[in-house]
Design brief:
mainly alpha; two-stranded antiparallel ribbon
Length: 84
């Protein structure tokens, strides 16, 4: 018995879906950034305006990465709210 095209959705490959294609660069960059962050384990001194803080470099890089992700999230959220 042969199937007709009525009522049956064609299967699209996972990596061909638009949502997955948009997400792939984010996942790749995030993976590379996290590898870079956790490979830098030395202790460093960081000046936070006035106080000097000694902490592992991976902690400082992780904080900077998280702040960057939050800034990106807020920017995308505001941009999507402006559209009609």
């Amino acid at each position: 018995m042969t199937r007709t095209g009525t009522g049956h959705k064609a299967h699209t490959p996972f990596f061909s879906r638009p949502g997955v294609r948009r997400l792939m660069p984010f996942v790749l960059i995030t993976a590379i950034a996290l590898i870079f962050i956790f490979e830098n384990r030395a202790s460093v001194e960081i000046r936070l305006l006035v106080p000097m803080v000694t902490m592992p470099l991976w902690g400082a890089l992780l904080i900077a990465w998280a702040l960057g992700m939050l800034a990106c999230l807020f920017t995308l959220r505001r941009r999507s709210n402006r559209r009609p």
